[in-house]
Amino acid sequence: MARRDQIIRVNRELEERFNLSIAVRSNGTLYLSGLTAIDEGMLVVGRGDMEAQVRQVYLRLEHALAACGCSLLDVVSETAYTTDIEWLGRAAHVRDGFYRRAGAAPPAVTAVEVRRLFFPEAMVELTAVAELPRGA
What we know:
By secondary structure, the chain is of the alpha+beta class. Helices cover about 30% and strands about 25% of the residues. The protein is globular and about 40 Å long.
């Protein structure tokens, strides 16, 4: 269990509503919870459109990383959970574009197909691990 001093608040409303922490730091490492393609109103963006959902997930990832003093350059590992592994593969160019624009090499990655995700219309959810800047 994380200690309160390890939690970095990224989206207080979401974190309090679902009793979770989006970002937890421990020993120089940042752990990010599953990020789905939701908007500020907690509605799924891009229903039925994997590319739109991947884009929203990576926008949320960039936002969460920035709130922790990090960027895509700091991501070392990610795990994608998807309801359609083939479709996720065809949308990989969206993910690749985010890392390319950031000037980052792609991190270690695992993709897993699941029956469904927490938000029923969600097609992809991402967890990530990043290195925190020294002193963070």
